[in-house]
Amino acid sequence: MSQGPFREFALPDLGEGLTEAEIVRWLVAVGDTVTVDQPVVEVETAKAVVEVPCPFAGRVGALHGAEGEVIPVGAPLIGVDTGAQGTEGGFDEPGVVVPAARPAAEDASGGSGAVLVGYGPREETRRRGRTRRLDAGGASRTTASGPRSSPAAPGRTPVVSPLVRRLAREHGLDVGLIEGTGGGGLVLRRDVEAAIVARHAAEVGAAPPRPRRAEGERIALRGAQRTMADRLSRSRREIPEATVWVDADASALLALRDDLNAADPDRPVGVLGLVARFCVLGLARFPSLNAQFDGERGELVRFSHVALGFAAQTPRGLVVPVVPDAHLLSARELSAAVRERTAAARSGTLTPGLLTGGTFTVNNYGVFGVDGSAAIINHPEVAILGMGRIVKRPWVSGDELVARPVVELTLAFDHRACDGAEAGGFLRFVADCVERPQLLLGDL
C-alpha cells in the first residue's frame, strides 16, 4: 500500500474580520476522493453559512473538528493524500481506515486558489459529485457525497455518528466511559444501547432518586445570533438614544403601491420598498442621520452614499442585510433587492459582504402584527426607522371622523449625531411622503 504526499488544508481567511467558524456538517468522509474546488464542509461564521472548497485533489485522510465545533482561522481543516488516485488499497478491513504517516504540512500552493464557494470558484464546482471509495478487496465503489461525521481527534473518544453522540447525551451517558466495539475502538450505536440496558438493569430495585431542581436549558449563541447580540449590547452601552414617532394616513401609499403593481405586475413594489425610498430621499435632506459616530475621536462621519440595511428574521435569528448604493435605486429596484436579500438570508446563502457596511436601517415590525416599537440602533449607525402594521383606525379628515388605514412610524436616533429638530424633521418628511406620495412621483 503506497502513500502519496499528505497535505493539510487550513480554515481559510473568510474576510470581514472573521476569526473563527463553526463546523455545521462535513460533506465528505475519510477515504472519499475529492476533486479540486469540491466543497468539503459547511461552516457557519458570524455572518452566514458557507461551503468551503478544497484547493487540491486526492483522498481524504483526516477531518479535523467535529460537527458543532468552533475552530479558528488558520487551524487545520482537512488532510488530503494528494498522491492517492482511488485505485490503491487503503483499508485493512471494511470501513476502517489505516492512517497514513503524515509528513509536515506543506504549502497549499498549486491548488485552485479558491477560498469560498460563491466568491470565485466556477459554478460547476458547486455541484456535489459522487466520490470513489475502496472496499476491503481494494476494488473501487461509488457512493454519494453527503453529510458525514468527523473522526475523533487525538485524546477524544472515537464516536463516528452524530446519532450515536445524541443517543448517549439523551440518556445521560458519558461516551468516554463506553467501550467501543467498532474498528479502532469506535463507539457504535449498539455499544450505547448496551450501556443503556446495563444501567437500567443495575438500577432495578434501587431507591427512587431524590427530586432535583430542574436546570434551565443552556443555548449557546453562535454565528449571526452572537454577532447581533454583541452589536445590540454595544448599542445600548454606548449610544445616548432618543425616539420620536408619528401616525400617518397610509391611504395614498397603498393606492400608489396598487397602481404601480397594476402597471408592471412582473416587478412588484412593496410597502417597505416605498418607505425605504422615502427614507433615502429624506437622508439627502437630513444627512446627519446617514452617518456613524466615531466615539474615540468625537467625530460624526457623514456618508455621501446610502447603504440601506433592513431587519430580517431568519431561522438563525435576526440579521440585517444591506443594499449598497440604495440612493441610486428606484422604489421598484429597492423592493426587488429587499426580496432577494431576504430570501438569501433565510436560506443562509447571503454573502458576508452584504451583512456589513450599512449607514441607515429600516425595520418593518408590522409584519409581526404590532403597532409600534422603539427599535435599537444598529451600531455603529446613528438611526433606525421602524414601521408598524397598517390597520384601520378612526381618523379626522377635515371636519369628519372617518376610518383610514393608519401606520405608526418611529425613529430611534443617536442624540450625539443630531438634535430633536433634525430627527423630527426627517420623520415628518417620511410621514408626509406616506400621506402624499404623489408629490414625489418624479423621484420614485
From TrEMBL:
Domain Peripheral subunit-binding (PSBD): from-to ranges: 159-196
One Gene Ontology molecular-function label: acetyltransferase activity
Enzymatic class: transferase
Keywords: Acyltransferase, Lipoyl, Pyruvate, Transferase
CDD domains referenced in this protein's UniProt entry, alphabetically: lipoyl_domain (cd06849)
InterPro entries, A to Z: 2-oxoA_DH_lipoyl-BS (IPR003016), 2-oxoacid_DH_actylTfrase (IPR001078), 2-oxoacid_DH_E2_comp (IPR050743), Biotin_lipoyl (IPR000089), CAT-like_dom_sf (IPR023213), E3-bd_dom_sf (IPR036625), PSBD (IPR004167), Single_hybrid_motif (IPR011053)
Pfam families recorded: 2-oxoacid_dh (PF00198), Biotin_lipoyl (PF00364), E3_binding (PF02817)
UniProt region (Disordered), positions on chain: 103-159
The keyword Transferase is annotated on this UniProt entry: yes
Gene Ontology CC terms, in alphabetical order: cytoplasm
SUPFAM superfamilies xrefs: CoA-dependent acyltransferases (SSF52777), Peripheral subunit-binding domain of 2-oxo acid dehydrogenase complex (SSF47005), Single hybrid motif (SSF51230)
UniProt family annotation: Belongs to the 2-oxoacid dehydrogenase family.
Listed name of the protein: Dihydrolipoamide acetyltransferase component of pyruvate dehydrogenase complex
Natural source organism: Marinactinospora thermotolerans DSM 45154
